[in-house]
Design goal:
Chain A has helices at 37-45, 52-68, 75-91, 98-111, 116-145, 172-181, 198-209, 222-227, 253-262, 293-296, 337-346; strands at 10-13, 16-20, 31-34, 154-156, 187-191, 214-217, 233-236, 240-242, 247-250, 267-270, 276-277, 297-298, 301-302, 309-310, 315-318, 325-328, 331-333. Chain A is α/β, with parallel strands linked by helices. Chain A is globular.
């Protein structure tokens, strides 16, 4: 049984990218091996790999694959080729900040080279560094974040901000893991998180595998468990955080934050600095809409009448006034976010 | 195609009870014929028929079946037999108020008889009256409730408080139907309503069949659509209403009410007076918990890891301060509920 304290969601191996196929979980643990950039991009689109930090690493590896297998014999051709790959990876899903950031880093690395060989080496190395740094960031997020949790706390999380959403260890679940590693007894409640059921399929699986006490509820039961005083803290991930502290995360996060506020429960978001976007305004961030099939069919079985209209936004926006603190690898950021986020991200 | 303006969910026919099997919807429209009380009770337990007013009528018909097919040759034996049947029906699901009320009415009818034959006649007649009155109540609820809706409104409802939740026409959906019959253009948004997906399976089906504009969303998207100002009013049903205005309804209703309040959206509950319980205190009402299988499996397919802990309460409690008004067949009840509910229900 995989331990998600140490498991790796995605890795590089001699010109191949190997990733866990998350659409098959929890029933089967299988891996996909990609040798072409397009294969990684397709895996992102199909949500075989998902989670902002994980698809950031996947985007970097997409560029690395393009570089590693290039037939270009001059730098401009190579750059053009890897820029194309980077663009595909960035556009695979629009809401998370990390893919654009990761692509940018790999392309910058290539631009420092004076030969094709050197560029390939630098790009692959940069992708590897991004992946390594992500695990390190998650561990630091855990280290900072666990100080917010008390022994005996029950934490409600949503979707999957775990090892599977990152290269390893997780952001929100990293905080929980770090608290457990410190010897604190933490219980977790997770709503199943329709439409893609990442709470049921992935978070319950990760935590159950690791022997962390996890209880699964329907998305409709969030208010109920809060009203029953079963929840001490809420900790979620974030796919994009703007400079004024708006958080873009899995659909349902916003209502979780409203409910937490209504019940005076602290609401924390945990994310690496690679999920921050200091340039965009909140109103300009694209909320991805996915296929109606995710709603009208579950595991291929029809659950709604044919022809019915469906609206399937898969992310939402939580305003800063509902967020108690943001946990990053650079420390815990507290309001007023318009000042503290910039301060934390730009300090040396 | 069935029109839910006129369709009947459950009916009596010469000693048989015929009901739509709602577990097969929306894929197949099939009927179940029951001749034994136990068959109706099993249909209630399996949610082949569900919705407080509908299972109220089903409970009355359970007693009617026991009476109709009795072999008792004296009144005390008959009464004992039908009391047993009534008890089974009342206990099939604990949260809705209507079954106990309906059973009480049929038993009271029997007690007026001076012979077994007369008792059978009176019980069957009373069950038929309960069913007829339910349709009538729904139409009146619609008549009163539609005055709260404006031409062009988008109404968010939850679960199914439609024709299928009653003997016909519906409570919350009755209000929407009545507004449509008045020529108002009403759009409906319905979350799928896990775990049993009555929003996706039943409400979307009813409204789509009737040509009423309905849009299906995930339960996680409720806050999102409210924040986007897509919702003008919320109208839901109620399985039990206590004298001080606490509403017990499908899990998810409470968080809907909190979110409606946060976005200054009026929140209405629509229910016949048979759903009121003036005796119980809110804290004494039993919240039904159903099988973990409803969460970990969807249509027989496993979506969560084996062995994971599940909490599956299927109703919740919404406090009076979150409820703008309660729509009944006796008129619209407004706060302060501790005075107005009693007043409305006891007036001649």
């Amino acid at each position: 049984m995989l331990s998600f304290y140490t498991a790796r969601t995605i890795r590089w191996e001699d010109g191949k990218v190997i990733l866990i196929d998350q659409t098959k979980l929890p029933n089967k643990l299988t891996y996909i091996t990609c040798t072409k950039p397009k294969e990684v991009v397709e895996a992102i689109k199909r949500m075989q790999i998902r989670g902002a930090p994980a698809i950031g690493a996947a985007a970097a590896y997409t560029v690395a694959l393009a570089a590693y297998h290039t037939k270009a014999n001059n730098l401009p051709d190579l750059l053009k080729e890897i820029e194309e790959a980077g663009k595909m990876a960035k556009n695979a899903r629009p809401t998370a900040a990390n893919p654009a950031w990761a692509v940018e880093r790999t392309l910058s690395a290539a631009k420092k080279a004076t030969s094709v060989e050197e560029a390939v080496k630098l790009v692959v190395k940069e992708a590897e560094t991004i992946a390594e740094e992500d695990i390190e960031a998650c561990r630091k997020i855990g280290k900072y974040g666990e100080t917010l949790l008390k022994d005996g706390d029950t934490v409600l999380t949503q979707c999957n901000a775990g090892a599977l959403a990152t290269v390893g260890y997780g952001t929100a679940l990293g905080v929980i893991r770090a608290a457990c590693e410190k010897g604190k007894c933490i219980k977790v409640i997770v709503p199943e998180t329709r439409p893609a059921l990442q709470g049921a399929r992935l978070t319950a699986y990760e935590l159950h595998n690791d022997g962390i006490d996890v209880m699964l509820i329907a998305d409709t039961a969030v208010g109920f468990v809060m009203r029953k005083k079963l929840v001490d803290k809420v900790v979620v991930g974030a796919d994009r955080i703007t400079s004024d502290g708006h958080i873009f995360n899995k659909i349902g996060t916003y209502q979780l934050a409203v409910l937490a506020s209504e019940h005076s429960i602290p609401f924390y978001a945990a994310a690496p600095t690679s999920s921050f976007d200091l340039k965009s305004k909140a109103e300009d961030v694209v909320i991805e809409e996915r296929s109606p099939d995710e709603i009208v069919k579950i595991k291929g079985q029809r659950v709604a009448p044919k022809g019915v209209r469906v609206y399937n936004p898969v992310f939402d926006q939580t305003p800063p006034n509902l967020i108690s603190a943001i946990i990053t690898e650079r420390g815990i950021i507290k309001p007023p976010y318009e000042r503290t986020i910039k301060h934390t991200l730009t300090k040396p």
